[in-house]
Amino acid sequence: MKVLMTGATGLIGKEIGKKLAEHGHEIFVVSRDGKKAQENLPFPCQIIPGDLNKGALHDEKLAEIEGVINLMGESVFGERWTDEKKERIYSSRVIATRNLVSSLPSSLKVFVSGSAIGFYGDCKDEIVKEDHAPGSDFLAKVCVEWEAEAAKAHGRTVMIRTSVVLSHQGGALEQMLVPFKAGIGGPLGDGQQWMSWIHINDIAGLFVHALENPAMQGPVNGCSPNPVTNRDFSKCLAASLGKSMGPSVPLIALKTVFGEMSSFILASLRGSAERAQELGYQFQFSNIEEALNDLCAPLKDGEEIFYSEQFIPLPPEKVFTFFQDAHNLEEITPPTLNFKIRGMSTDRIRQGTLIDYDLKVHGIPLKWKTEIDEWQPPHRFVDNQLKGPYSLWHHTHEFRPFCGGTLMVDRVRYRLPLGIVGRLFGGSFVKGDVAKIFKYRRQFVASKDWARS
């Protein structure tokens, strides 16, 4: 199927795109910045330029589109809900979806749109199914209009009312982890409010299931079969990190910091996954303990995890040739780091090779020594810091055959010195630095003329 995606560079979009590609679909992505999209998307696709906040799309490729997955929407988090923020939340969903629907052919077979479990508002202890009436707060009203615009699309329409998405990188869990890793995270208010959640693998799987399953139509709750109270979630999160749960966050503090958004954060939503299951979706993660252990187990020993993926339209054998040359590291590292190789213990990289580097971090000169722990050309190698600024730096490079090309995966496990003090005072700072290094690398890879390599 020829599938058009919006919001493809987001947390959920990247996972859905990979699943679509694995299932053999031909993917088209709407983007305001095609170059940036190619740098960040971990699957093969064609870019359709456009800004749906400003109007409909005009591209001849749209005439062939058979299915749509619509994930557009300004994040509801990140800042207080000022009038300007609320307008962006509304227009990026309602107006943009209206413009999207008007861009599509009458031959469209299926339109799967994101929505939110916030459609229902605060429902206390009630188990919420898809026929429940909508709430009356701001976000609920946005969801009602959002779904109404999606329902105007030709063909079969499905609206996935997404709950809190738990992922190993980004999203709500990343924000929650900061106090819990420090051992001071606790429930919000009395913690008795219900929390509907879903693992990233399941929300991506549910969207793809909705696209491919003709029986799915109308609203479907995007939540796991077992919601939990916020207090129970907090206990499980702390336990998955090997920590004790901290004190509750007072309601007055939440209202002071978040303003109107605090009512959304504290809303009690006990979503039912019964309809998704009846329509054939099988959840990989049904209980919160399994989900959080899957996502948080690597963080128990004070480690941080950085994860990056990028699709390269060449087989691993050709891509690996470039990355196996240690001197090319200088080319793919930001110039601000003044990264230079001082020496290698072997003439070519192999198992056990020792590499010495000089670099500067924020102007401070440092020396770095790594060892190649694993060497499995053309699919994988691992470098491990023996001497350098981190207590631990373990970088796994993978080159996976994927849809006729290579899915390049970087997974870095690192730990800062000085234990909890280092994490509290330098954690976010270092995390930003690591992200910038790999952003530069993705930009280089996306712009490289691989045919000449």
From TrEMBL:
<comment type="similarity">
    <text>Belongs to the ribosome association toxin RatA family.</text>
</comment>
<dbReference type="InterPro" id="IPR001509">
    <property type="entry name" value="Epimerase_deHydtase"/>
</dbReference>
<protein>
    <submittedName>
        <fullName>Cell division inhibitor SULA</fullName>
    </submittedName>
</protein>
<dbReference type="InterPro" id="IPR036291">
    <property type="entry name" value="NAD(P)-bd_dom_sf"/>
</dbReference>
<feature type="domain" description="DUF1731">
    <location>
        <begin position="249"/>
        <end position="295"/>
    </location>
</feature>
<dbReference type="Pfam" id="PF08338">
    <property type="entry name" value="DUF1731"/>
</dbReference>
<feature type="domain" description="NAD-dependent epimerase/dehydratase">
    <location>
        <begin position="3"/>
        <end position="215"/>
    </location>
</feature>
<keyword id="KW-0132">Cell division</keyword>
<feature type="domain" description="Coenzyme Q-binding protein COQ10 START">
    <location>
        <begin position="312"/>
        <end position="425"/>
    </location>
</feature>
<dbReference type="Pfam" id="PF01370">
    <property type="entry name" value="Epimerase"/>
</dbReference>
<dbReference type="GO" id="GO:0051301">
    <property type="term" value="P:cell division"/>
</dbReference>
<dbReference type="InterPro" id="IPR010099">
    <property type="entry name" value="SDR39U1"/>
</dbReference>
<comment type="similarity">
    <text>Belongs to the NAD(P)-dependent epimerase/dehydratase family. SDR39U1 subfamily.</text>
</comment>
<dbReference type="InterPro" id="IPR005031">
    <property type="entry name" value="COQ10_START"/>
</dbReference>
<dbReference type="Pfam" id="PF03364">
    <property type="entry name" value="Polyketide_cyc"/>
</dbReference>
<dbReference type="InterPro" id="IPR023393">
    <property type="entry name" value="START-like_dom_sf"/>
</dbReference>
<dbReference type="InterPro" id="IPR013549">
    <property type="entry name" value="DUF1731"/>
</dbReference>
<keyword id="KW-0131">Cell cycle</keyword>
